[in-house]
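To illustrate the input format used throughout this study, we show a single complete record. The first block contains the structure-token representation of the backbone; no residue identities are included at this stage. The design step must infer an amino acid for every position from geometry alone.
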């Protein structure tokens, strides 16, 4: 998950935390179950490996990672929704210049609208989804309908520390199911972990790697380590005191991860 400075370039400000739509002369209030696009980064060379892409940010997440950089996409809505049509018009105009669309959040599968993705695919774009892996049924549905080309799935921590890391309990079987689905699919993929001093050390990386290799009985092909950066705004205020993760420590963790993943990258 990446942080999203200065991307609200298609939208205005919102104060009441709910979307209001005018439809057939009536005002319609939409809840969290509706897909809400809160931001767009119009060009990125980083978010979709090997492709020139844009990134869409969806509101809502079922996890509560204290170190999350995007609390405005998880708990409190701070900006107005961007109309789906604006996005589709933008993508129409960028045909031939952009190749891919990254969908991130929040947790996209909480609300992701299949028809919206179908419209993006019809325009000829590759689609990458960033997910926390807790919605394997939806992931399978999107894979089966060939609506995804690339998945980046978070592995938040080793099993024993998963709930502490995500700030709540979750069904780890669903996480495992998503991991297997990704491996068994023909999609491009990466697994990734944002490492934080108070949650991740050599021991956790060893345990995480063992868990994944035991589950799959083989090494996944790609894993990315992202060092925590303190940008001062988090879901949990206690992370304001957390130090940036050092390059040296990332290199140490990379060496451990290389025992369990075919290729390991460090992301800045
Ligand atoms: S999974 Fe965690 S880090 Fe990602 S958006 Fe949700 S709360 Fe934030």
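Output of the design step:
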């Amino acid at each position: 998950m990446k942080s999203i400075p200065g991307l609200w370039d298609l939208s205005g400000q919102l104060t009441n935390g709910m979307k209001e739509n005018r439809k057939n002369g009536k005002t319609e209030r939409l809840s969290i179950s509706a897909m809400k696009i809160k931001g767009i980064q119009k060009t990125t060379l980083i978010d979709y490996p090997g492709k020139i892409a844009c990134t869409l940010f969806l509101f809502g997440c079922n996890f509560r990672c204290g170190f999350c950089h995007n609390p405005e996409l998880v708990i409190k809505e701070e900006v107005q929704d961007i109309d789906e049509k604006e996005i589709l018009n933008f993508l129409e105009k960028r045909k031939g210049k952009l190749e891919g669309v990254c969908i991130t959040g929040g947790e996209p599968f909480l609300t992701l609208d299949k028809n919206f993705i179908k419209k993006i695919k019809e325009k000829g774009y590759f689609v990458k989804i960033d997910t926390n892996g807790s919605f394997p049924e939806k992931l399978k549905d999107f894979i089966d309908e060939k609506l995804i080309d690339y998945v980046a799935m978070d592995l938040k921590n080793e099993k024993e520390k998963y709930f502490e890391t995500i700030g709540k309990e979750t069904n780890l079987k669903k996480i495992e199911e998503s991991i297997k689905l990704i491996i068994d699919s023909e999609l491009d993929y990466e697994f990734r972990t944002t490492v934080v001093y108070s949650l991740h050390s050599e021991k956790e990386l060893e345990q995480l790697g063992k868990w994944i290799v035991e589950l799959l009985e083989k090494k996944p092909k790609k894993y990315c380590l992202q060092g925590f950066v303190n940008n001062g705004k988090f879901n949990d205020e206690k992370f304001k005191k957390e130090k940036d993760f050092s390059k040296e420590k990332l290199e140490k963790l990379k060496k451990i991860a290389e025992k369990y993943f075919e290729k390991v990258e460090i992301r800045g």
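Structural context for interpreting the output: Residues 31-198 form a domain with the TIM Barrel fold (CATH 3.20.20.70). The chain has seven helices and ten strands.
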